[in-house]
Structure formats: C-alpha cells, structure tokens
C-alpha cells in the first residue's frame, strides 16, 4: 500500500473552529508527505463557475481544462478549510490536484490549505484566525 493511502485512510471530518466542518488526521503526517488527492465529479470550467457563483462554501478545484466538484462523490478533501498560514499545499497538474504537508502535522490537527485564488475573488471574509491573515478570500 502506498504511504499516502495510509495517511488518507487516517483522515476524518468533524466540526471546525475555522468554519463548518474540517478535515483532521488521526496520525502524524511527516513534512512533504503526500496527503491525498482532490476528487469529485469532473465538470467543465464554465459549469464549475456557474455552480460556484454566489456560494459561501465552494468545493471545486479548477485545473487546466476541467474542474472537480467534490460536493458530488465522497472525497474527504472537500472539507479542507482555507488558512492564510496552512499546513498543506496543493500541487496541481493538468489533471490532478494533490495535497502535500508543508510541515510535520500532529495527530488530531486540522488540515488546511491556502486557496490563493478562489471563486470568491476577494469578497469572502477569511475566518482562519492566523496571525498573518489576509482578511479575505
């Protein structure tokens, strides 16, 4: 079994201090380890933008020529919250969005990622609580 698969199997969802539900880990995740991949329904970019428009919570990742909508299917990464000081980062290719640990992550810690570009275009107030919070997504 691939190491990242064991990490993925240790993830769970519970109430988040940031917003709504969050993604947590039952195990320690070493720095630079692959945590898993974003997935969901594969849709066109136009459809992704239509679905995201006006939504407070968006679980869509756009790639080069299509997007994944994680609200369809059972992908744990739909629950990963934004943080201006995240513990994971997203590496994208033309067909994949993978999450990797920026630093060692403790068991029980919420996983977060910096969305950088989002469907909110700077209009949604950030609630990450980080010391260097940018204020908006």
Structure write-up:
A 4-stranded mixed beta sheet has the order 1-2-10-7. Strands 3-9-8 form a 3-stranded antiparallel beta sheet. A 3-stranded antiparallel beta sheet has the order 4-6-5. Strand 5 and strand 6 (67-69) form a beta hairpin. The longest helix is centred in the middle third of the chain and has 8 residues, at 45-52. The protein has one domain (3-113): Beta Complex (Beta-clip-like), CATH 2.170.270. The protein has helices at residues 3-9, 45-52; strands spanning 11-15, 21-25, 34-37, 41-43, 60-62, 67-69, 81-82, 88-92, 97-101, 110-113. Helix content is 11%, strand content 28%. The chain is built from 2 helices and 10 strands, in the order H-E-E-E-E-H-E-E-E-E-E-E. The chain starts with a helix and ends in a 24-residue tail after the last strand. It has 137 residues and is mainly beta.
Number of helix segments? 2
Instruction: Give the oligomeric state.
Output: single chain
Question: What is the count of β-strands?
Answer: 10
Helix content: 10-25%
At CATH level 3, the topology is Beta-clip-like
CATH class: Mainly Beta
The geometry reads as globular
Range of strand content = 25-35%
Mean pLDDT: 86
The CATH superfamily label reads: SET domain
Widest beta sheet: strand line-up: 1-2-10-7
Task: Output the helix-strand order.
Answer: HEEEEHEEEEEE
The main sheet comes to: 4 strands, mixed
CATH-scheme architecture? Beta Complex
Tally the structural domains: 1
Structural class: mainly beta
Rg for CA atoms: 14 Å
Low-confidence stretches: none
């Amino acid at each position: 079994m691939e190491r990242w698969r064991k990490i993925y199997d240790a993830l769970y969802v519970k109430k988040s201090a940031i917003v709504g539900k969050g993604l947590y880990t039952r195990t320690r995740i070493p720095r630079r380890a692959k945590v898993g991949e974003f997935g969901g329904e594969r849709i066109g970019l136009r459809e992704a933008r239509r679905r995201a428009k006006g939504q407070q919570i968006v679980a869509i990742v756009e790639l080069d020529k299509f997007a994944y909508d994680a609200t369809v299917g059972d992908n744990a990464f739909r629950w990963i919250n934004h943080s201006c000081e995240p513990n994971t980062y997203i590496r994208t290719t033309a067909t994949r969005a993978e999450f990797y640990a920026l630093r060692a992550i403790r068991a029980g810690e919420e996983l977060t990622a910096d969305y950088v570009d989002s469907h909110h275009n700077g209009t949604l107030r950030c609630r990450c609580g980080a010391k260097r919070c940018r204020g908006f997504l």
